[in-house]
Design goal:
This protein is of the alpha/beta class. It folds into two domains: 25-153 and 315-379, D-Maltodextrin-Binding Protein, domain 2; 154-314 and 384-423, D-Maltodextrin-Binding Protein, domain 2 (3-Layer(aba) Sandwich). Helix content is 42%, strand content 14%. The chain has helices at residues 2-21, 47-52, 55-65, 82-89, 103-111, 133-137, 161-166, 182-192, 214-223, 241-254, 268-275, 286-295, 307-310, 328-339, 342-352, 370-377, 390-405, 411-423, and strands spanning 39-46, 69-76, 97-99, 140-141, 144-145, 148-160, 205-207, 258-259, 280-284, 299-302, 313-320, 382-383. Helix 17 (390-405) packs antiparallel against helix 18.
C-alpha cells in the first residue's frame, strides 16, 4: 500500500509541469464531426453587446443551416471577465464562444493560456490583411492569435451641427469647422455654451471622467502630435502634451463651458448630446451614430485637433474561445458564416456606430463612416495595449482629470502626480 501511495505521489508531481504548460488543463477531445454529430455550442456576450449586435438572430440562422447544432445564447454581465478566469482555469468550459472584452481584458485570459489560438482561421477571404492590423496584432501572444476582433471603436469629437451653426462654427458651404488646436477647441466650447446661470441650458463640451481612461488621454496626445506609447508599447507618461490637455480640461470646466456630469454618470455626455443639452463630446465615435435617433443629420463626427494629420486611437472588442471547448470548429464556422458578414456588421454600425474590424464589411455602409475610416487608416493611428497594471493607470487618469476639472489641483500638479504615481506602476505589456 505504501509503495502504491508513493507511486501516485511521484506520478502527480511528474504531471505538474505538463499541466502548468497547458494552463493547468488537460487536452480536450473535440467532437469527431460537428457537421453530423448532435452538438451544442454555448455563446455568451456582454449585455450591451447582445443589445447592439444580432447574435441571437445569427444563432437562429446558424441552427437553420446546421440542424444538428444547438446554439444557446446568454448574457455575461461580468465585464472584467473574472468568472471566465476562474472557471476556465479549472477546466470548466462553461462557454464555447464569448463576445466582448477589449485587448487589456482578453489579454489576461491569454496570459494564463486559457484561450484557443485562431491562427488557422486567418486564411482565404479571412486573411489577416483584411482586418485592421493593430487590432489583430495586439492579441498576438508568442506567435499565436488568441482572439478575433469583430467590432472596432475609434475616438473622435461628436457634435450637434445645429448648435455649431448657431454659434457660427460652420464654413460658407455649411460644413462644420474643425478646431486646429486646444485653444480653438476651448473657444468652440465657449461659443456653443448657452445660458448664464450656474447650470447652463447647453454645455459646449463634455470630457468623460469615468470612461475610456488611457484611450481618451492618449488619443488626445497622439492627435496633438505627441508620442503616446514608447518603443516597447508601454505608455509614455512624460509626453509634454499631457500638461496642455490638463490645462484644457481645467479651462473649459472651471469657466463653465463644459459639464462635469460624467463624474457621477459615465453616460452623461452621450445622453446630453442626444438630448441637445451638450453640444460636443470627446468619446468613441459611435456616440454620433447613436445620437442620430434624436438629432438626425445634425449628429456629426469631427476630428479632435490634429487628428486629420496624426490619426486617431482605435480599440476592438473580441470574440474568443476557451481551450477547453469541445466545439471549437463550430465556433470558427459561426464566425465565418454569421459574424463576419455584411448583415451582422451593418446592424451594429448603422444603428449604433460599432465599426467593423473586417475591412471588406465597410463596403455598402453609409457615408457617415467615410471620415472615421480615413482617420483609422492613417499611419499615425494608435490602439489599445494590454498593460499589467493598466486598470490602475486608468483609475489614476480619472482621479487626476476630476481633480483638475473641479479645481482641487492645478494641471502642473496633475502632471507631476501622473509621472510619479504612474511611473511606479508595472506598465509593461501583458505576456
Amino acid at each position: 500500500m505504501k509503495k502504491a501511495i508513493l507511486f501516485l505521489v511521484i506520478l502527480s508531481l511528474a504531471l505538474v509541469p505538463f499541466l502548468m504548460a497547458n494552463g493547468g488543463q488537460e487536452e480536450v477531445k473535440a467532437v469527431s464531426d460537428w457537421t453530423k454529430d448532435e452538438v451544442t455550442m454555448k455563446i455568451e456576450g456582454m449585455g450591451w453587446i447582445l443589445s447592439k449586435f444580432p447574435i441571437q438572430e445569427a444563432a437562429d440562422r446558424f441552427m437553420a443551416d446546421h440542424p444538428n447544432v444547438t446554439v444557446e445564447v446568454s448574457s455575461n454581465q461580468d465585464n472584467e471577465l473574472n468568472s471566465y478566469m476562474l472557471n476556465w482555469s479549472t477546466g470548466d468550459a462553461d462557454v464555447d464562444l464569448a463576445f466582448g472584452g477589449a485587448a487589456p481584458q482578453v489579454g489576461k485570459l491569454a496570459a494564463k493560456d486559457l484561450l484557443m489560438p485562431w491562427n488557422d482561421f486567418y486564411s482565404g477571404d479571412f486573411d489577416k490583411g483584411n482586418f485592421l492590423s493593430h487590432s489583430v496584432e495586439v492579441v498576438n501572444k508568442a506567435g499565436e492569435y488568441f482572439a478575433i476582433p469583430f467590432m472596432e471603436e475609434a475616438m473622435s469629437l461628436q457634435a450637434n451641427k445645429a448648435v455649431m451653426r448657431e454659434a457660427g462654427l460652420v464654413n460658407a458651404d455649411g460644413s462644420p469647422m474643425f478646431p486646429k488646436n486646444l485653444d480653438e477647441l476651448a473657444e468652440f466650447a465657449k461659443k456653443m455654451t448657452k445660458g448664464s446661470g450656474e447650470v447652463k441650458d447647453v454645455y459646449g463640451f463634455s470630457w468623460n471622467f469615468t470612461n475610456f481612461g488611457d484611450q481618451q488621454m492618449m488619443a488626445a496626445v497622439n492627435a496633438l502630435g505627441g508620442k503616446a506609447h514608447n518603443a516597447d508599447s508601454s505608455p509614455n507618461l512624460n509626453a509634454p502634451e499631457y500638461l496642455d490637455i490638463f490645462k484644457f480640461i481645467a479651462k473649459v470646466n472651471l469657466d463653465g463651458w463644459a459639464t462635469k456630469g460624467t463624474i457621477s454618470d459615465t453616460n452623461a455626455g452621450r445622453s446630453g448630446l442626444k438630448a441637445g443639452t451638450v453640444a460636443m463630446i470627446f468619446e468613441a465615435a459611435s456616440r454620433a451614430i447613436e445620437a442620430k435617433e434624436t438629432l438626425g443629420d445634425d449628429a456629426i463626427m469631427i476630428p479632435f485637433p490634429g487628428m486629420v494629420e496624426n490619426g486617431t486611437f482605435i480599440y476592438a472588442h473580441y470574440a474568443y474561445v476557451p481551450r477547453n471547448s469541445k466545439v471549437q470548429e463550430v465556433a470558427k464556422a459561426f464566425m465565418r458564416e454569421q459574424v463576419l458578414t455584411k448583415d451582422f456588421a451593418s446592424f451594429g454600425a448603422e444603428k449604433y456606430g460599432k465599426l467593423p474590424s473586417f475591412i471588406p464589411l465597410y463596403d455598402g455602409l453609409s457615408s457617415d463612416f467615410e471620415k472615421i475610416k480615413e482617420w483609422m487608416a492613417l499611419p499615425g493611428t494608435i490602439g489599445d495595449q494590454s498593460w499589467v497594471e493598466g486598470s490602475k493607470l486608468n483609475a489614476l487618469f480619472f482621479e487626476l482629470e476630476q481633480m483638475v476639472a473641479t479645481g482641487v489641483i492645478t494641471p502642473e500638479k496633475a502632471v507631476a502626480r501622473l509621472v510619479k504615481e504612474g511611473g511606479a506602476l508595472n506598465l509593461s505589456v501583458v505576456q
